[in-house]
């Protein structure tokens, strides 16, 4: 990677990768470095066959205050080549931002987010691309684009309806209001609440570790089958999982699971 300031970094402990938003001085605002580095990091993780789960965490008191309006001012600026060129440029650059967030959703293994402090705009886009969200009690979340005279355009409107009931989703996106951790849990946006930032980060990493104890073949298979079935009928989903298991169920990991059960020990999976 280039020598630009790090906005996203990752580390690995065993089979768990932890992705850090690491620009706390800017409250993890999403500037050019973030949008470039996030898909790079997720791509590296996706290629690492030893990673079985991902914890998405943030340095500093806030998860993310969303788009860095100062550093990303060019996104909304004019073009010397005229209005058509301006709109074409905007669409091209917006698509790149959308693809950056989608890289999290496209990760082949489960991704869990630790939310705390402010989670605004792009922070909601990012967290909604994760499969599980836990939060600290100080969480304040808002689809802030609505109050900024913009339509949220990096995934919130597409992913939230698949996470929470439509009435709650529309409350968030039409008002743009700030909601706390308790309300987010009522809506089903987060699973559990922890008292501090440190506690929620530890909880997310612990959950990732628990997930990572399972066969990587199964984890990737479950994620792929769930993803396929989101917009399909039950019959289509059953057919797909049948085809998937016919290809992958007869594995060394299955043999190991059966042997471990009979021997009353913990299985050691190798992804084969």
Order of helices and strands: EEHEHEEHEEHHEHEHHHH
Q: Which percent range describes the beta-strand content? A: 5-15%
Share of residues in helices? 40-55%
Please summarize the sheet with the most strands: 6 strands, mixed
Secondary-structure map:
Elements: E1 8-13, E2 16-21, H1 32-47, E3 53-58, H2 83-105, E4 111-115, E5 118-120, H3 122-128, E6 132-136, E7 140-142, H4 156-159, H5 166-175, E8 179-180, H6 181-187, E9 193-194, H7 197-211, H8 216-229, H9 234-248, H10 252-263
Parallel strand pairs: 2-3, 3-4, 4-6, 5-7, 6-9
Antiparallel strand pairs: 1-2, 7-8
Helix pairs in contact: 1-2, 8-9
What does this 3D model show about the protein?
The strands form two sheets. Strands 1-2-3-4-6-9 form a six-stranded mixed beta sheet, with helices on both faces. A three-stranded mixed beta sheet has the order 5-7-8. Helix 1 (32-47) packs parallel to helix 2 and helix 8 packs antiparallel against helix 9. It has two domains: 8-211, 2-enoyl-CoA Hydratase, Chain A, domain 1 (Alpha-Beta Complex), CATH 3.90.226; 216-263, Orthogonal Bundle (Lyase 2-enoyl-coa Hydratase, Chain  A, domain 2). With 272 residues, it is α/β, with parallel strands linked by helices. Helix content is 45%, strand content 14%.
Question: Summarize this, please?
Answer:
This protein has 272 residues and is of the alpha/beta class. 45% of the residues lie in helices and 14% in strands.
List keywords for this structure.
272 residues; alpha/beta; Lyase 2-enoyl-coa Hydratase, Chain  A, domain 2; 2 domains; 6-stranded mixed β-sheet; 10 helices; 9 strands
